[in-house]
Design a protein that fits this description.
alpha+beta; Peptidoglycan synthesis regulatory factor (PBP3), Domain 2; Peptidase_S11; hydrolase; signal; Peptidase_S11_C; cell shape
């Protein structure tokens, strides 16, 4: 999966016509028909990103599918307990494929004795039996290492086989900068990832298993006599935050992936769906503050623009030999982009068939529409007839056809 760097946002008011040519060309070449401004707001200098105390970080806008800002997003870093997101993803796949059930009882293996006193755990003992769902909740909410070990044994029979599946899954998801050597996030020289790869994993959850957020937005985990607060401090400080995960080791520092839904940002009060990832912050407090800075920056420095709107009339075009005379042109799919605050895009409409002859079906492709900023194409879509043009009575069709041939001959 390739990530686009930040772009886009456009206005929602009526299009303003900058220039137009409504004549018919005798050549079958492209015709630059119109150049429309999506809004009249003046451009201003883009706000610089905040000073985030992290070795690597990024902030991503789901609606536009773009990384808005980043620093060293491809740098290898130890994920610490962010590893457990891949552990959970493999478990979700096992349930989806029918190999396990959420209420199926799992048995803690002898290997849980390896979990040290300074590691986060559920205090499982070998032979303890508990539902798969409780293990995943303990894994993601309080980051229990003994839950990770138990899940690995339950899914693949051994940690070694489970880690092999983790790495195969990472490769399938396009996480080329990632390698795991355990299911819990214990430090090691061959245990690493990148912020970009963790974004790929987060988006895979969005696409395949969005139910993970019902787990990661829980403020605490309780199972029988065990109870502990969630490791994500923003869950109680920001109502828009619905997960995902924190991580920490001495080598990795303090890591976090934050998902924020319908977060109201910017002067226009737009609701935004964002992901912030920070690796290698120096403390819990800096980790939380850095995540908040990135989420706030996404709203103050950028806005979402609907640059192409499905079914909206962009131009009217003469259809020779038709009863209607002309049809509306537009696009069939809405597209949104992210733009720096105060910056708007232009819309360029190009015809490759400037003189169609009836009949013309609805949806017929007649050219393309492009949203442009500083000469860069932000979004493009086929320009289609939004209406059908039916044949006129034969005398009018004949006259139109003769007139069109004369124009083409003269040209």
């Amino acid at each position: 999966m390739a990530f686009r760097n930040r772009k886009t946002d456009g206005g929602r008011g009526p299009y303003r016509l900058v220039s137009a040519a409504m004549f018919h060309l005798p050549r079958p070449f492209f015709l630059l028909l119109t150049c429309l401004s999506l809004a009249a707001a003046p451009a201003r200098a883009q706000l610089p990103p905040p000073a985030v105390p992290a070795a690597s970080w990024l902030v991503y806008d789901r609606a536009a599918g773009e990384i808005l800002a980043a620093s060293n997003p491809g740098q290898r870093w130890e994920p610490a307990s962010l590893t457990k997101l891949m552990t959970a993803y493999v478990v979700f796949e096992a349930v989806r494929d029918g190999r396990l059930r959420w209420q199926q009882l799992m048995t803690a293996p002898e290997a849980v004795r390896r979990v040290k006193a300074d590691e986060t755990r559920m205090y499982l003992r070998p032979g303890n039996r508990l539902p798969l769902l409780a293990l995943v909740e303990g894994l993601l909410i309080v980051s229990a290492n003994d839950a990770a070990i138990t899940l690995a044994s339950a899914v693949e029979g051994s940690e070694e086989a489970f880690v092999a599946r983790m790495n195969a899954t990472a490769a399938r998801l396009g996480m080329a900068g990632t390698h795991f050597n355990n299911p819990s996030g214990v430090s090691g020289p061959s245990h690493y990832t990148t912020a970009e790869d963790l974004l790929r994993l987060t988006l895979a959850f969005d696409r395949d298993f969005p139910q993970v957020y019902a787990i990661t937005n829980a403020p605490r985990f309780t199972f029988q006599q065990f109870q502990k607060e969630a490791t994500n401090p923003l869950l109680t400080r920001d109502a828009s935050v619905d997960g995902l995960k924190t991580g920490h080791t001495r080598a990795a520092g303090y890591n976090i992936i934050i998902s924020a839904r319908r977060r109201v940002l910017g002067a226009t009060g737009q609701e935004r769906d964002l992901i912030a990832i920070l690796l290698g912050t120096p403390s819990k407090a800096e980790r939380a503050r850095g995540a908040e800075l990135l989420l706030d920056y996404a709203g103050s420095a950028f806005h979402i623009a609907e640059v192409l709107t499905a079914g909206r009339e962009l131009q009217r075009l003469r259809v020779h030999g038709s009863a209607e005379g002309e049809v509306a042109l537009g696009v069939e799919r809405t597209q949104r982009v992210v733009l720096p605050a105060g910056v708007e895009a232009e819309l360029r409409v190009t015809l490759d068939e400037p003189a169609p002859f009836a009949p013309l079906p609805r949806g017929a492709v007649l050219g393309k529409a492009e949203a442009i900023r500083d000469g860069q194409v932000l979004a493009t879509a086929p320009l289609v007839a939004l209406e059908e043009a039916s044949p006129a009575a034969w005398p009018l069709r004949l006259l139109d056809w003769v007139a069109l041939q004369v124009v083409r001959f003269i040209g």
